[in-house]
Amino acid sequence: VVREYERDWSAEDLRSIAATLASEVRTFPKSSLIGIRTESAVNLLVALAAIEQAGGIPLISPASEQSGDAMQLDELELAATITDGLEPGELRIAHHNVVRYQPDLPSDSVVIFTSGTTGMSRPVVHTWKSLSSAVREVAKYQHKHWLCAYHARSFAALQVMLQALSTGGAIYLVTRGTQGLWRQLKHGEIDIASAT
Known about the structure:
- The chain is α/β, with parallel strands linked by helices.
- It is built from five helices and eleven strands.
- It has helices at residues 11-25, 41-54, 128-131, 155-166, 179-186, and strands at 2-4, 7-9, 33-37, 57-60, 78-84, 91-96, 109-113, 123-127, 145-148, 170-173, 192-194.
- The strands form two sheets. The protein has a six-stranded mixed beta sheet with strand order 6-5-3-4-7-8.
- Helix 4 links the parallel strand 9 and strand 10.
- The chain starts with a strand and ends with a strand.
């Protein structure tokens, strides 16, 4: 379960939305870079699943926008950009670009931007294996409720989400306002708060 905007999203919800979006992503050549620009972690998870199903390579736009329009990079040609629709759980392909096949990136690549704390955000190529290398599948993490207070498109948020999902846990996302967060903390709904 993923809780965002005071709503619970089941794995079935996310799979259903991802399958619909994947049919659109399949219109682009395999291994094309597909940009993701969303403030919603639910939408980010859906977009990542859809792109993987369709054989594309996700490029997650930077959490910090100080780098300007970081999606337009000469060395990374995007086939399309996925953005939020009107409601959480609604995504759309906002722009299409004419692109070439990206033969230089492995098919299991995930491109994420650095935080930009030491300068401009820059793209770094990961794989799903490298992203999940910090995941610990130990008994104490099984079926726990995780609080994720990081920006949805940050590396830290992805690590928390992967940890929770790989151990059968639930993810509670801090979004607009703190009322829901305080209620969840007060009622003991959160087991682990990940923070730096």
